[in-house]
Amino acid sequence: MKKKRISITDIANALQVTPSTVSRALNGGGKVSEKKRLEIISLAKKLGYRPNPIAKSLLANRTQTIGLILPEFTHHFYSRVLAGIESITSKAGYQLLICTSNENQNQEIKSTLTLLDARVDGILATISKMNDKFEHIQEVMDSGTPLVLVDRFSEEIETPYVISDDFKGAFSAVDYLCQIGCKNILHIKGPDNLSTTFNRFMGYKEALRKHNMPLKEELVLESSDPKLVEKIRLCLTRHQVDGAFTYSDYLAFEIYKLASQLKIQIPEELSVIGYADEPISTYISPTLSTVNQQPFEMGAMSARYLLNKINDPEVALEVKNLETKLMIRESCKVVETQS
Amino acid sequence: MKKKRISITDIANALQVTPSTVSRALNGGGKVSEKKRLEIISLAKKLGYRPNPIAKSLLANRTQTIGLILPEFTHHFYSRVLAGIESITSKAGYQLLICTSNENQNQEIKSTLTLLDARVDGILATISKMNDKFEHIQEVMDSGTPLVLVDRFSEEIETPYVISDDFKGAFSAVDYLCQIGCKNILHIKGPDNLSTTFNRFMGYKEALRKHNMPLKEELVLESSDPKLVEKIRLCLTRHQVDGAFTYSDYLAFEIYKLASQLKIQIPEELSVIGYADEPISTYISPTLSTVNQQPFEMGAMSARYLLNKINDPEVALEVKNLETKLMIRESCKVVETQS
DNA sequence: CTGTTAGCGCATTCAC
DNA sequence: GTGAATGCGCTAACAG
């Protein structure tokens, strides 16, 4: 059975004063005689008094709680985002209420309403992959609850964002492949419907353009394609692919597998760059070049942004783009530099 | 600015009844004339009324909230535990308040008090690596807040546990290595002070004993040893090691690296089994044999246990041991079966 | 300086 | 059936 906690009234009774006096003494605000204040404080400490935030919330209409909706927990990227968020919110004295959408919009909607019901002071969310309903987002905005969207962008939702600069990230990767002399660069796209997929593809195209290289349709594959493996094989055998840039590190590993089967040497014959900098990238052989998105910093930044928004609703509504870092490892061929 | 939500009183005023009546109509409990009940319900829906859980909490002394303390978020294992917990709590209508200790006991203590202050209905926690203070745990118990400890066990704390059967998990791995004919089996231990480290080591010893193999001190290394890499090298070159069982998958990858340097073939000359079944295990080459701890199930089980405890404080205090699964992959040599 | 009053939103007595 | 009263724990406005 949950034991009754000692309340302000308990210590008021014990000291023959009113709860108001106790409240004032404890909060320092009002004027209380030095003698009583000390008495009260010492008794409070002795009794292990801890204020009830529930009561305060009811009164103040603030809960000191941030709601968080993530598409999944298991992905390394999101756990880093979570860690970044927590590092900021805990320091700021906020609790973190956590939900997942499991990449399912219905669950996202449910989670959103749950958080709204819980009267969180603000919401951080990454929208799920399939998103065609926006009423729940509208409801958040209507309720006046500050909202910051993380990682994934949607044209339909006008709110603060903290996202990764996928365009530049992809551009830097493909630009690098071009620089080291790759002539036929394969790209495997991510899930449809995701801003990240689109932007990384755009970065790929732009880098090709910069180097005056044609965009070859047969070198652009879809990760959702059931025949993906076959098509990669075709690219590797028929189309003289000597470079690859994939939407994720795991897709890069698919290329590793096929290259190994086909006895194609990485990086000598094929340079590969993935995306996300999964920890596995440095353990696999050859170590994988990839694009680091600074997920921890992304989480921290979005939390800071949200807290600002909570404390000052006039804070500008902007899309913050986080720089990516190109991590070149063993999977890219080394070009002799003429010195 | 957070907009004022519509309350039970608002709809009472609109309908010329008292809040009591509205409350009864909405909760179904008391007797309300059918006409009024319908009126009230329809207006409530129209106005988008949602009960304020804060007010209910204050009244009921229950928050429908579970507190969770994890040593870290980033580790794959803990994110699976988290996912398992969430899958249960969300279905049961509980919120999840999340904290991390960062493997630091002071932060663990702080988080514990935060959760207690927040009046969570129960706490799930994995104690941090270094643990020598137990007052905060005692405080949880004194407060009457149900507590279930996950993954790591401590003799000092008497409370429900859900842990993995590390002994059997380790035993099954080393037993397998013996069965396929390994004669000199290296073990790399985990961090001191952890029940998991101890139990896996015990499992290692017991398997050796079963096969009448001597425990060789020089084949047991400490992961915290600054000279670990050198010592592994020594084992591999001098001590005819032909099998290895490590506290974690990542330690197994250290062996992979050294074996590659020393031109020792895995699994032909050296069979390796890790622990935890990190996703990376199936991507690395050769794919790593390992022990799966069912972290999702562990999370789910601990959440179920806690909910039971919350609903019935008389629930037995026990240590639930979760079965492990030995995952044999390419890193173990194949023995011809005589058929 | 300190006590009284009131109210945050709700559910639960107890009268009528 | 329904309203009035009470209180969960706390703070704030107002008296004194």
**Number of spatially distinct domains of chain A:** 3
Rough shape of chain A?
elongated
Query: Would you identify the regions of chain A where 5 or more consecutive residues have pLDDT less than 50?
Result: none
Helix fraction of chain A by DSSP (H/I, runs of at least 4) = 40-55%
Structural class computed from helices and strand pairing of chain A: alpha/beta
**Kindly state the mean pLDDT of chain A as a whole number?**
94
Count of separate DSSP helical elements of chain A: 12
The helix-strand sequence of chain A is HHHHEHEHEHEEHEHEHEHEEHEE
Examine the coordinates and then state which fold CATH places here, giving the name of the CATH topology of the largest domain in chain A: Rossmann fold
Largest sheet of chain A: 6 strands, parallel
Strand order of the largest sheet of chain A: 2-1-3-4-5-11
The tally of strands of chain A reads 12
CATH superfamily of the largest domain in chain A: Response regulator
Oligomer class: homodimer
Based on the coordinates given, report the CATH architecture of the largest domain in chain A. 3-Layer(aba) Sandwich
* Greatest interface (CB-CB under 8 A), with counts per chain: A-B, 56 and 56 residues
